[in-house]
Input
Amino acid sequence: MSNTNNHGVDMDNDVLFKELNCEKAATIQGGASAQVFTDANFSGTASNIFNTDIPGFQGFNDQISSIKVISGQWTFWSDANYSGSGLILGPGNYSNLNNLNGGVYNDVISSAKRNVQ
Output
């Protein structure tokens, strides 16, 4: 029995499937994903990478000091349930929230919502 597919490619030598981590999968699917950290420079306690709205950060409420927006656009809210003042962030690494808007959002973020178009 041959391991050659219909296109004449030897399947034993080619990688047919590649496992993707959440970050790469969200980027390929056009989704939104992010990660938050309790300290500046992506240190301290890190959340799991999330790709759904967070109405209230359990264990991170009013403690977030740096954010990685892996894909999509997010609004990070000062209060739970997407209320209070909001900070809109697109893909990028935000290593110190003290450097954004005069530090207004350092240690005050309580919820996050994807900006879906």
Observations:
- The chain has a mean pLDDT of 82.
- DSSP finds one helix and seven strands in the chain.
- The longest strand covers residues 33-39.
- The domain at 31-114 is CATH 2.60.20.10 (Gamma-B Crystallin; domain 1).
